[in-house]
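Incident log, structure service

09:12 report received: a user says their structure output differs between two submissions of the same chain.
09:20 pulled the input from the user's history:
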Amino acid sequence: MSLSKMKKEDLELLSNKDITNLILEESQKPINTADLFKEIIKLLELPESTFENKIGDYYTALSTDKRFILLDDGKWDLRSRHTSDKVAKITDDEEEEDDDDDDSENEPEKEEIDEIEEDSYDDTDEEYDEDTNEELKDLVVIDEDELELEQ
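09:34 re-ran on a clean worker, output below:
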């Protein structure tokens, strides 16, 4: 059913995200956040102040909904219309190349990684653990049955 043919009462039963989904399905093209929200306000006959007061919440809702995708040009579209072009597929040839690599080539990389790990070691973790253990030494574990008896 077309959005323009839907009754206001039926639209009010839908969430803003569901209405956005219907708008994007009908438009067949990406739309920016402001235009989407203005269309919802128009459909639901809400006051103009709603735009300024709720646009941030609306953007957050779209950002967290997996049905929508924010494109590079700042417009929203349905995720189902877009495919990832960055899917990595390992072929048999690539696997053979990895197996043929000389071990001597990998050793310098391992050394570099070890150096980075040593440099990034932070002593504050040990101090934190000691402080935490000191604070927790007086705590006693009580069984649930014992707890019920005390009450």
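09:41 both user submissions now match this output. Likely a transient worker issue. Closing.
09:42 reviewer note: The mean pLDDT is 76. The longest strand covers residues 75-78.
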